[in-house]
Design goal:
The complex is a heterodimer. Chain A is mainly beta. Helices cover 0% and strands 52% of the residues of chain A. By secondary structure, chain B is mainly beta. The chains are: A mainly beta, B mainly beta. At the A-B interface, strand 4, strand 5, strand 9 and strand 10 of A face strand 5, strand 6, strand 10 and strand 11 of B.
Chain lengths: 115, 114
């Protein structure tokens, strides 16, 4: 158990819908990262938040957005869903996030299926 | 820009045999290198990381990796594998800077056979 929790574990929805994925980092970790894992794209970095502020952005679509709240939990919002958005979404956390030397601890993931 | 190439998508091996999972990276700046393991239906777990210093890095579960700057490689090795090592292994690269962004390879599935 990494100490990172993600809810829900599974999510099935229809095209055009909007969903919210939630992540609680390990106690004491200030950074949260979101990754998308799909068969064709592999594991891709989406976005990083550090202590409530956006720190880095990857290949995140404009239909996707994220935020980190004062209690440090994070939410990833996916809207106007398409079939291709079906994937496993991981959240990870690290102590600082001010450099890549930190170990990132991954949650168990949320499996999103868009029908 | 950085990129990571894992040269084998699948590596079948018999139990107690040695294994090497290959990883090459490209970057114009200094990088940090990681190996993560993903067991079925679980999140990723760090096996080991190279930040600086000795090029031979030892990790958990008997794994080790060697950083080779001239060949831009970071291959993962284990002298004797167990059935429980069956999993997907990811090589990742991060860079010096003010973010923790990691770029992952496509993954290598290690299949340990009895």
């Amino acid at each position: 158990d990494s100490g990172v929790t993600q809810t829900p574990k599974h999510l099935i929805t229809a095209t055009g819908q909007r969903v919210t994925l939630r992540c609680s980092p390990r106690s004491g970790d200030l950074s949260v990262y979101w990754y998308q894992q799909s068969l064709d794209q592999g594991l891709q970095f989406l976005i990083q938040y550090y202590n409530g502020e956006e720190r880095a952005k990857g290949n995140i679509l404009e239909r996707f957005s994220a935020q980190q709240f004062p209690d440090l939990h994070s939410e990833l919002n996916l809207s106007s869903l398409e079939l291709g958005d079906s994937a496993l979404y991981f959240c990870a956390s690290s102590v600082s996030g001010t450099g890549s030397t930190d170990t990132q601890y991954f949650g168990p993931g949320t499996r999103l299926t868009v029908l | 820009a950085q990129s990571v190439t894992q040269l084998d998508s699948q590596v079948p091996v018999f139990e107690e045999a040695p294994v090497e999972l290959r990883c090459n990276y490209s970057s114009s700046v200094s990088v940090y290198l990681f190996w993560y393991v993903q067991y079925p239906n679980q999140g990723l777990q760090l096996l080991l990381k190279y930040l600086s210093g000795s090029t031979l890095v030892k990790g958990i579960n008997g794994f080790e990796a060697e950083f080779n700057k001239s060949q831009t490689s970071f291959h993962l090795r284990k002298p004797s594998v167990h059935i429980s090592d069956t999993a997907e292994y990811f090589c990742a690269v991060g860079r010096l800077g003010n973010t923790g962004k990691l770029i992952f390879g496509q993954g290598t599935t290690l299949q340990v056979k009895p």
